[in-house]
Task: structure prediction
Amino acid sequence: MTYLEAVYRYQTPAGEPELRAIDSVREVYGIQRIQFNEKERTVRVLFDASRLKADAVARLLRQAGIDVQEQLVLA
Result:
């Protein structure tokens, strides 16, 4: 397994329905951790790169109702 972190900027803060939907994203095989930073309006996802790609992770977040705008480059 190869774990990667991806950070995405979002526009609209997640509400209760979106946070409930995130629980189903956490159950996707390959997703290890999801962390929100409300101050910076980012969501950080640790995932298994042998199972998922960053685009698929962004799509899962969007399907959960998170308004993902862009993926940030990690230094």
In short: The longest strand covers residues 3-10. The mean pLDDT is 92. The chain has two helices and four strands.
